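Supplementary material to the annual report.
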Amino acid sequence: MTNPGYKRFRPRWHRERMPIFWWLGQFSYIKFISRELTSLAVAYTAVFLVVQFWALSQGREVYGRLLEFLRSPGALVFHVLVFAVLLFHTVTWLNLAPKALVLHLGGRRIPDRAVLAAHYLAWVAACAAVAWVLLGGS
Amino acid sequence: MSETITLEVQRYRPEEEALPTWERFEVPLKPKWMILDALNYIKDELDGSLSYRWACRMGVCGSCGMMVDGKPVLTCATYLSSLGPGPVRVAPLKAFPVIRDLVIDVEDFVGKLESVKPWIIREEEKPLAQGEYLQTPEELAHYKQYSMCINCLLCYAACPIAALEPGFVGPAAIALAQRYNLDSRDQGTPERMDVLSQEHGIWSCTFVGECSVVCPKNVDPAGAIQRYKVQAAADWWKSVLWPWGGTKRSMGPAPG
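Predicted assembly:
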């Protein structure tokens, strides 16, 4: 049994090709790809937020029409789904923050929990600020 | 517990076959045997032509990393009995070219490792008469975790990006770059940043995180890469916002 393509003293290394569905082979990879896909909801929400601000800048009538559209059953169901996906993306993102942010204060490392708490507080503050603008705060 | 277990070992003999094949071996299932002991048994008793790397047998040299049932492990640190009832599949590490049987080509990795300059870089060496560069235990603690890497390459086998993008510098090399960046005696951060802020450096990493999961020494290469990204982004903003900004000489603690 001999490989006809083999050349003596010039061996050929075998290189395994990565299949296109490589991520189906392991649960952690499926989780990773799912999380990556939730970025679409993030992108949609960012664009939609700009649309909301634009409508707000156009006056009461345009913003009212946008609110009318959002009250339709289809829009409601869609946005509830987007919100759930967004929540998953945000929480998993924030939970990774201590991996990237290793901070020291007075020669001591700030605990991961404190880094995490700071991120969640900033998130709540940002949400409150946006809600204040959209709900017509003055 | 049965007295034997079946090992399916991937064989690749380029002079005989164009593609790898699987070969079955029956080996004794002894409670204290590691996968490596089973491979040594095959080599000694069943088929002397089986090729694989190993050296220390105690999880230090990093030579015996292989895919066992699809997961990258050190075969000297994985009990055979933990994988029952079998058959147990043993293959070479993923993402690397295979030379023969379970032996992979690591030349590409060595080149990448060298590219990040994993040694202490000084702008100016002080004369020997002035003594050594001292370091406190606190300064050591900043980088010690990253210095535990044994170059076993399990992290590359677990990383889909390393397999999909052959140019990616990869987890271990970046973690080792970080080990020197965080060393208070080192001043080579800008040089390493030049290499690692390129396309195939830190930005290729999509934070799958599996490199840290499989690391037998708890080095956490994924964390090292994310820290590097934060540092690179902060440096970029500094260079844009402040003319005197830019990369610090060392990412480690300020000398006391």
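The domain at 107-241 of chain B is CATH 1.10.1060.10 (Fumarate Reductase Iron-sulfur Protein; Chain B, domain 2).
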